Every structure is written in C-alpha cells, then in structure tokens.
Amino acid sequence: MNRDLRRDLYTVAAAALLVVTAALVGVAVKRAKDVLHVGWPPLYANWLPHAGPGTPAALTVAVAVVAYGPALAARLPWRPLLWTAWATATAWTFSLALVDGWHRGIARRLTTRYEYLRVIDRFDDIPRTLRDFTRHILLGSPDHWPPHVAGHPPGATLTFVLLDRIGLGGGAWAGVFVITVGAATTAAVLVTVRTLTGEALARRAAPFLVLSPAAVWAGTSADGYFAAVAAWAVAFLALAVTGHRPRTTAFAAGLLLGLTVYLSYGLTLFAVLVTAVLFLGTRRRAVVPYVIGGLCVVPVAFTVVGFDWWEAYRLLVERYHQGAGGFRPYGYWVWANLACTVLVVGPATVAGLRRAGVALARWGASPAVERRLGLLLGAALCMLLVADLSGMSKAETERIWLPFAMWLLAAGAFLDRPRAWLTAQATLALLLNHLLLTGW
Known about the structure:
Blueprint: H1 3-32, E1 45-47, H2 54-75, H3 78-97, H4 102-107, H5 126-131, H6 147-150, H7 154-165, H8 171-183, H9 185-197, H10 199-210, H11 215-218, H12 222-241, H13 246-260, H14 270-280, H15 284-305, H16 309-322, H17 330-361, H18 368-389, H19 397-400, H20 402-408, H21 418-435, E2 436-438
Antiparallel strand pairs: 1-2
Helix pairs in contact: 1-17, 2-3, 2-10, 2-21, 3-8, 3-9, 3-10, 8-12, 9-10, 9-12, 12-13, 12-14, 12-20, 13-15, 14-18, 17-18, 17-20, 17-21, 18-20
C-alpha cells in the first residue's frame, strides 16, 4: 500500500468516526430529551430495512458504472459523455427512489403536509398570491404556508404551479421533474470542471458524479432541482469567462443566478463559487455587465409584482425559530451536519478532498490544473461551512446542502484505483437506501 492511499484511508476512517460519534451522541440526546427532531440521527430518516422494485435496477446501474464507467469516461467523445452521464445519473437516482416503491418513493414525496404541492390551488391568481406571500410565512398568521413553502422564496413553489398549469400536475410528475432535472447537475459540474481545469480531470470525475450517495436524497427532493439550476448558472459563467460565446453565456449565467436566489435563500452563498470562477477566468471584466444584466431579470420581475425578498427572509428567520429550528441544539448540529455531509458525498469524496487540499498546500509543486480544481472544491466547501456556521441549517442538511455537496463529488478526479472507490460509493448509497427510510 502506497503512502497516499494509506493517508486516504486514514482520512476516511476519521470521517467514519465522525459519523459514528454523531449517531451515538444523537441517540443519547434523543433518549434524554428528543430535541433533535430526527428519527435516526444525524439523518432525517428512520430505521426500516427494505427492498423494492428499484433494487435490481440500482444494483445493475452500480455494477455497470463500476465496471465500465472509468473506461467509457476516458474514451467517449465529450458531448456523448455529457449525455451519457446525465442519463446514467438519472437512472441511478430513479432506481434508488424506486427502492421505496413508486408511490412512497416518487409520487407522494412532494405531496406531504410539508411540501409545495399542498398549496397549488392557492396560486389561482399568481400576482395576488405573490403580493400576499409574506403575510402567510409566520406560524399563527392566517393560512400560514407549509414549512417548505414558507422556507423558500416563491420561485420554488411557482415551479410546481407552472408544471400544473401545463398539464403536468400531481406528485408523480413533480417527482419525475425534480429527478430528471436534478440529475443534470452532473453534466453542469462536468462542463465547469472541463472549462476551468481541463478535460482530463473532468473525465476522471465523471463516474464519481454519476454514482454518488447524494442521489439517495436528490430523488425525490426539490433541492435536487435547485442544485441543477445553480450548477448550470456556474457552468455558463465558466464558459463566459473563458471566451465561449461570452455575452450569451454570461447573460444566461446571470439569469439562472437570479432564479437561484428565488428558489432558496441559502443559495445566495453561491456568490463564493461565482467569485472563484471569476478568479479562474480570463475575461471576467468583459462579461460582468452581461452577468449583472441577466441577474436583474428575475428579481425585478418578482419585485414589480410585489414580492419583497428581504422582508420574506426576515420573516423566514422568525418562522425558523418558531419551529424545529428553535429547539434543535446548535452545539450538536454544527458538527453533526458535517457527519451528514460525509454520508452524502461518500468515502471517495472525502479521500479526494484530502488530495485536493494537498495540491493547494503544495502550490508551487502541484500541476496547475489540480490547483484550479482544488480552488473550485475549496469554494464549494467554503459555501457549505458558512451555511453550517450560520445556524440556519440545523439538521436535514443531507437534502438542504445538495447544491453545495454535488460540487464536492468532483474530488474523485484526484483518486487512483477508481473502481475500488466507486464500489465504496455505491455500497454506501445502497446500504443507506435499503436500511433507512429517508424523509426524501
């Protein structure tokens, strides 16, 4: 065993110890006084060993990606590789969701009392509803919104309203939408990595982006859809700052960034990753005006209609402390959230991040492409840590942090022996999905 692999395994063992400690401490806290409000700490899940119609499909996808993924990623032409990665990530996410069955795993996920589809009929008059949106955020207000509706800007709910308007209403269509769109995050991250660091690293990262434990929560969670919108905003920005149709891609990046912050308040943290992309680009000054132009479109549209983003966020903070966020202990979740993230990204990502850190630490000796990828990964990790320290992400971060965590998966590009690491990733995902009934 070489020294690098041994250090990788030590790092993974330390991460596993963090998860075990979070589980043991979490169980002790629950037994003393259940202030965690999760069934199987640190995850929002319950212990329920089970199999389902997705089990054979998930096993098939996992075996196929482990056996053929690295070789195909190395030799497929670039555009077919992107389509293949998206299709395979979609198949992997669907198969994991179907382990819980069609109704429980997909069709009913977004129809519970916490979710967006419960309020579709209240958007008959969209402008009026947006003007009154903030009046229903706080608990105790007339007809207060369900938790996920109150906890996000109205762009999130409006997505499902518009799906309903075009004839794709109901939980089944909503589930299919978020899984299919969410899987496109894989392609967006690949485009960004290739554009800013080179094609070789992007190809090495592809199987790890496809076969990720994060798919357990991306299907079916609206945060998977949010992750895709944010990821494509960054991908278009990367294309713009490197001279690929700079005006068009810069405007598209701004447009999607504007939409991103009207899907989730926390995704304003993507400013960190945007800054890193601008730093790595060569045409940042030329494209910034077009980015700003695109960025203004969605906020201006919502503001003109009458929705006040800042007031809504202020009320959300109050609503957060009215609910579970008010009694979940910060002292536990500020580190247990990181244990959740370990389960979301898997052991390969943990090892890859160690190697990325080494590449940054040895700045002068490391290849430039590795340093550039290390900067991207560092920015993604920074977003996640700021979210953690904010105190507005206590628990359920396996879902909430998907837009940040998906970028960390590209750390697999640093690893040797990809098949062994992919096997570890798939095994973790399959165990999580078959032993636990997750909230998403």
